[in-house]
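Supplementary Text 2. Reproducibility record for the structural model of the 425-residue chain.

All settings were left at their defaults, and a single model was retained for analysis rather than an ensemble. We include the record here because the model underlies the residue-level annotations in Supplementary Table 4.
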Amino acid sequence: MNTLLSILKLAVRSAWSRRGTLGLMLASIMLSTALLLAIERVRVDTRQSFRQSVAGVDLVVGARTGATQLMLHAVFHSGSGALPLRWDSYQAIATHAATDWALPLSLGDSHRNHAVLGTSADYFRHFRHGDRQPLRFREGRPFDKLFEAVLGSEVAERLGYANGQKIVLNHGLTDGGALATGHDDKPFVVVGILAPTGTPVDRTIHVSLESITALHLDWVAGTPMSGFHIPAAMVGKFDLTPKEISAVLVGLRQRTDVFRMQRFVNEFRGEALIAVLPGVALDELWQAIGIMERTLLGVSALVVLIGLCGLAATLLAGLNERRRELAILRALGAGPGQIFALLMIEGMLVTTAGAVLGALLVSFAGALAAPWLLSAFGIVLNPGLPSGNEFALLAGVVTTGLLASLIPGWRAWRMSLADGLTPRA
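Retained model, structure tokens:
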């Protein structure tokens, strides 16, 4: 034990005497480890954010299309649905004996590149995110009249909107293009702002279905009717029940009815519909982009490996300069095994210190970047100590560093006392 402690002290002093060279290797290992852990943390937290985008929803129903396409459109408000579904089909689903609640969704309009979602006031009571957390209002209230809007937290923050402000919605999912047309004659009043959720809700403007219908009373085939205009004050005289919607979020009375309800929707006779289990569809979506995350993780692992190879090369290159030092240690009674242990411990000290500093760097940077990732990409980053997967990666880095240190250790072990005292020219 005393011998091992003496070798450890000697290794620390020896490494300190060469702190310039080994410091560069330490920085290389620290940064490469930080890159590896950062990619793993973002990968895990991104997947978790995907899963937390919608909770408590048993089925997502839409016109028959791909499950991934339907989820992207209905939950993430990205892309476009293949076809809308009829209002009477929604009513048949909403009044089914197994249905507890059904939230109609109407998408297609936007405001300054933020999606506009038409839905019912029940959306704020039944929609869940994260660990089945309800939507909360940072200020204001839900809409209960025509032309009232509730903003997601990110919309309000980015655009600087507050309650009472008037906004104009744009027809279509993009603003500013040649085909973009604004509903300038029917402005909306902001009546509520939601608390942050880390989901697409934060980037969405919520209005009533009746408001969406009222906006398009004087529109045909996606364009305003020439020579015909219905002012905002007159829309209340019309039947504002929508004829079509984009999708439906369904909550069931009993989870055991999910497959029975899915079969009912998939075999619906009124029109071709599809019912998707959110968890299954999100897994399919993640598998579609899984090759990208595996590639990034592989590249970062390769960077770590290159850094550790550089450490082995540095220790090997330094052996020629340390021949006399090692020979003196041999002359003082150090055996080949102790010389081997000295080189191994030096390599392990640098590798372990680099791995630990890399983990601390990721935790510190994660705490700083978490608000930005949440606002920019909707990713809820969990800063803090490494998780189980990250500890496994750290153990892999240290183990690889141990293997890399075997080469200079074995080389030093083979050096003889005579070779150290009389080095070759």
